[in-house]
Amino acid sequence: MTRTLLCFGDSNTHGSPPIVTRGEAYWRFDDQTRWTRVAAGLLPDWEVFEEGLPGRTAQFPDPVMGSHMDGREGIKIALQTHGPIDAMTIMLGTNDTKTRFGADPERITAGIAGLLDIAMSLEMQERHGGFGILLICPAPVLEQGPIRSEFTGAREKSLRLPALYRALAEARGVGFLDAGTVIEVSPTDGIHFEPEAHKSLGEAVAEAIRRL
């Protein structure tokens, strides 16, 4: 019987490559590279749906990119679009560290808690017949590259997130993966993943899903 995995996140779930030149034309890593597809290849009895939106936050409408970047609305749409699902991954928080949101690590974690509240709500769980959740803490950012001005102060914030996310996952009884123990972000832009990191993360996610 085929089971279904929903991967919810931002550009690193979408498969955006490191930015070399700000404002360059849009493109995306292929099916052989993205961590979501790597995981799918290692989970032969699973169908994997990708719901990664570049710029998505856990809780903030973005004054530049738009109100639809707020993950609270996005997760409702994703959970009502796909289904029934058997598990989902949530990997968000990188964009919440942007300077313009002024959010400390505790506030960022509170946004993740809000997403878990939605996903674990009676409405959503009954809709899908129950499903497991793997919370993934993003790898810490580097303040360098062509978009570094948007992430002033983000490095320190992101380094504090793993412990907070882990405690939240334990409190809510969901799975947890600290991506920073498996991969590092690209030094090219300090945010996105190189192909090797996608491969390593996909392998780690597949193993974590098996343990859910």
Question: How does this structure look, described?
Answer:
With 212 residues, the protein is α/β, with parallel strands linked by helices. It has a single domain, classed as SGNH hydrolase (Rossmann fold). It is built from seven helices and five strands, in the order E-H-H-E-H-E-H-H-E-H-E-H. The chain has a five-stranded parallel β-sheet with strand order 2-1-3-4-5, sandwiched between helices. Strand 4, helix 6 and strand 5 form a beta-alpha-beta unit. Helix 4 (105-119) packs parallel to helix 6. The longest helix has 19 residues, at 154-172. The chain is globular.
What's the layout of helices and strands?
Layout: E1 3-9, H1 11-14, H2 35-42, E2 46-52, H3 71-81, E3 87-91, H4 105-119, H5 122-128, E4 132-137, H6 154-172, E5 175-178, H7 195-211
Parallel strand pairs: 1-2, 1-3, 3-4, 4-5
Helix pairs in contact: 2-7, 3-4, 4-6
| Fraction of residues in H or I helices | 25-40%
Mean pLDDT: 97
Characterize the main sheet.
Answer: 5 strands, parallel
What's the count of strands? 5
Provide the succession of SSEs: EHHEHEHHEHEH
Q: Which strand order spans the largest sheet, edge to edge or round the barrel? A: 2-1-3-4-5
User: What's the CATH topology label?
Assistant: Rossmann fold
Helical run tally: 7
CATH superfamily: SGNH hydrolase
Q: How much strand content do the residues show?
A: 5-15%
Radius of gyration: 16 Å
Q: What's the quick description here?
A:
The protein contains seven helices and five strands, in the order E-H-H-E-H-E-H-H-E-H-E-H. It is of the alpha/beta class and 212 residues long. The two termini are 17 Å apart.
